[in-house]
Amino acid sequence: MSGTPPAKTSPPPRTPDAPEPGFRHELYPYRGNAEFLSGTQGFIRAALEAGEAVVVAVPSDKASLLREEFPDEPAVTFVETSTAGASPGRLVAAWTEWMSERGEGGRPVRGIGETAWRQARSAAHLSELRYHEWLLNRAFARSSAWSMLCPYDTADDDRGALRSVSRCHPLIHQDGRSVRNEGYLSADEYVFDALSDPCDPHQELTYTSGDLSAIRSKVSQCASDAGVAEDQLPKLAVAVTEIATNSIRHGGGQGTLRTWSDPTTFLCEFRDGGYISDVMAGRTRPTAGQLGGRGLWLAHQLCDLVEIRSSPEQGTTIRLHTDISQ
Hints:
This protein is an alpha/beta fold. The chain has helices at residues 32-49, 60-69, 91-102, 123-139, 159-166, 212-226, 233-250, 295-302, and strands at 24-30, 53-57, 76-78, 109-113, 146-153, 171-174, 177-180, 203-208, 254-261, 265-272, 305-311, 315-323. It has two domains: 24-180, Rossmann fold (3-Layer(aba) Sandwich); 203-323, Heat Shock Protein 90, CATH 3.30.565. A hairpin with a 3-residue loop joins strand 11 (305-311) and strand 12.
């Protein structure tokens, strides 16, 4: 948590005016299957003509359409996004793995990734999906051999949602070409959605060194009472231990735990006075020899959603979401 791995030095943000060299991240607004195929086919054909590989991660119905157009094409790989799980915090690592596998030897790779916006299970989940899209620009800023097209279905005519998503993409794919996105939010401009208030009644506990056992016991009991499945409790206990340990070590030696639930989710929240300066903390797979920095990574792997809010002025808040058995 607070003070997890030391902050990584990021390169200066690219401007949409100068997308080369560097990671090209394009939003492709479309309506209906015909427009979906028109834009994605052109993207794939351009890649094949340039000798590049393509990774496709789109909903199964859209994948079927593209498979019919590119049967048995060895340079085009279809991946199943559900293997990364529901948490948006796992997706940067998944894309890194998919693109690296196809780009062996420095081969340029193009990705087509359609986020399952309409399958977002809550406002918090939708907010984290948007943040993931913005983080891709930071995660792959130095990957000049990679580019990504992000189809977005505009069928519901929600202009506000489209504006929010477009702010995460430096480029817009229009009429078969890339144009600069004037609404793109650069490195220091991303504004998080405010965290929702805890539901009442909620439990609260102040903790410090020596309280890890009490924290695990408290969270496990509250989660069980809320209806979390028995086999999920050990996973939650590991995530809670990691976050609380980081909080004690790097957040001033103490913090506050709050737990509550709504009809579908059990939540536990850790707050302390520390600050996480690395926006990628917990989203990239730790290396085998890495010392420390695994707590947030484990939380993303073990929980259904992780929300992080951190600033030098207000400290750090981390919320762990665990689905309740229906």
